[in-house]
Task: structure prediction
Amino acid sequence: VQQLMDMRRLDEARAVAEESARRFPMVPEAELLLAAVEDARGDQVARRAALERCLVIDPRHPPATRALADALADAGALAQARSLMDAACERAPLDVSNHGYRAKILIRAGDVEAALRALGDGLRLEPGYEWAWDRLTEWAELHGAFDLAVSVADEVVAARAESGWAHLGRARLLCSRSSHVGDAVAALDRALVHEPRLIDAHD
Result:
């Protein structure tokens, strides 16, 4: 199927994916693959339907849950997407990717504070979650929320004080403002104290 998609033979890819879903009705990945084909074809209604069938097979399927949240958000159903990711995070609070996807939905819904705090939830679990640090810096700049972002970063550092990645991420955020360069350098120094071989901190 993927090869047909790469060749843009999308109708053929859809036929193969549909046949796979019929032959393996209890395998959620078959519906997940069909959803990807429908997305490539631009049929968002069919995409959502395939993802919903996937979750009927396995209501806790993380990739399908996140993909359906994206699909709902694309359709403007942000409240439903948010509820879906809220439930996913409650069900699997240690799944870092869930917190990242929840943050994506929240920022699309315009809830900047909740989005940044969702990033913090993920970063406290995994301080090396670079995507989340990048979004924290990016969204702080886009939405005029630098002080809130620094507060979130401070909470991550307080929770994971022995992690060089936590200090490095905070340093990168601080570097986005020239007035905080001194604090950023100090944060880099602390990163190297905890993880002397952290190559990114040397850069």
Observations:
- Residues 137 and 173 are 5 Å apart (CA to CA).
